[in-house]
Amino acid sequence: EAKSQGAGPQLFNEGIGGAFSRKLRLERELRFAAERGELQLVYQPQVGVESGRLEGMESLLRWRHPELGAISPSEFIPIAEETGLIREIGSWVLGEACKQLGAWSRRARTVPAIAVNLSGKQFMAPDLAETFRGIVRDAGCDPHQIVLEITESFGIVDMDSVIGVLRELKGMGFRVAIDDFGKGYSALGYLKQLPIDILKIDKSFLSELTSDPKSDALTRAIIQMAQGMELRVIAEGVETPAQMARLRELRCDIAQGYYIDRPMPAGELEAGYLRSPQR
Ligand code: C2E
Ligand code: CA
Ligand code: CA
Ligand code: CA
Fold first, then answer.
1. Range of weakest confidence among 93-102, 138-147, 154-163, 216-225
2. Which residues form the EAL domain (predicted)?
C-alpha cells in the first residue's frame, strides 16, 4: 500500500516494520520460552483490609527473553491467545503454582491460596476441566488452594458451556474469582449465573476512588452488592494510604496493589510473608 501511494521508502517506516518483526519473533520464540526456562511466575500479596494479614496472592506471568529482556504479559498474552499457545502456557502456569504451593506448605505453617489468571481462549477447550484435574493430581495439589481468575468477557461466547466447565472445576475444589469487575460493559446478569466466589473490583475504580465521587459511589455499590451475594471482595490497584483508608470505611474484605507490595519472586514473598511472624 505504501508503494502504491508513491510516497517512497520512508513510508515503510521502521516503527511499523520493527513492531511487525518483533511480533513475529515473539510468536516464534514464545513457543519455546517455557522449556527454555524463560517463563517465571511472580506473586503479589493480597491482604485483609482490616487485619493486614496475608489472605492470598495472585500469580502473574513474566517472560524474561535472553536478548529482548523483560516482556510484559500485556504484550505476550495476546500473542499466546492468537497462536493457541495459551493452552500450553496456561497449563504450565497452573502446574507451576501447584509446585510452589507444595514447596511452601512444607516450609510454612499456613499458606494461603494462589490465584492464577485464565484466558477466555483457554476456556474454550472442551477438555479444560480434565486437563486441570490431571495437573493438580500430578502435582499432588489441593484445588481448594487455587483460585481461578476469569474476566466477564468469558461468558459472551457460550455462556452455558462456560457455566458447565466452571461447575465442574468448582466440584473439584477450585474457587473462582471474577477479575476486572466493572471494566468495559459489565452485564450484571453474568453475576447471577456464574458460579463465583470472589469479585475483584477493577483498578480503574481505585485510581479515582478518592478524587471522583462517582467512582466512590460505584465502588461502594459494588462492595455492598458483593456482600449481599456473599462473595469476597478484593480491591486491586490500591496505591495510596487514602485509598486503603476508604476501603476500610467501605468494609472491603481484601486489598491488593503497590501500596501493599509489588508482584515479587516466590523467594521474596516467602521471606516477607510466609516465614516471618505474620504481620
Ligand atoms: P490482571 O490480571 O488484571 O493483573 C493485575 C495487573 O495489575 C498486573 O499487571 C499487576 O502487576 C498490576 N498491578 C498490581 N498492583 C497494581 C497497582 O497498585 N497499580 C497498578 N496500576 N497496577 C497494579 P501485569 O503483571 O503486567 O499483568 C497484566 C495482565 O496480564 C494481567 O492483568 C492479566 O490479564 C495478564 N496475565 C498476567 N499473568 C497471566 C497468566 O498467567 N495467564 C493469563 N492468561 N494472563 C495473565
Ligand atoms: Ca488477575
Ligand atoms: Ca485485574
Ligand atoms: Ca485481566
1. 154-163
2. 23-277
Question: What's the CA-to-centroid distance between 267 and ligand 2, angstroms?
Answer: 21
Instruction: Report whether pLDDT(155) > 70.
Output: no
Ligand nearest to the CA of 181: 3
Torsion of CA 102, 108, 113, 117, to 10 degrees: -60
The predicted-structure confidence for 159-175, as pLDDT tens digits, reads as follows 888 889 999 999 999 99
Cα(203) to ligand 3 centroid in Å equals: 7
Angle made by CA atoms 126, 127, 133, in degrees to the nearest 5: 145
Task: Give, for ligand 1, the residue of 72, 117, 247 to mutate: max count of ligand atoms closer than 8 Å to Cβ.
Answer: 117
Instruction: Give the tens place of pLDDT for each residue, 21-57.
Output: 999 999 999 999 988 999 999 999 999 999 999 999 9
**Rounded distance from Cα 106 to ligand 4 centre (Å):** 31
Cell of 24: 513475529
Strand 175-181, strand 113-117: pairing: unpaired
Angle at the Cα of 60 from the Cα atoms of 54 and 63, rounded to 5 degrees: 145
ipTM exceeding the 0.85 mark? yes
Residue 14: predicted pLDDT = 54
198 and 174 Cβ atoms separated by less than 8 Å:
no
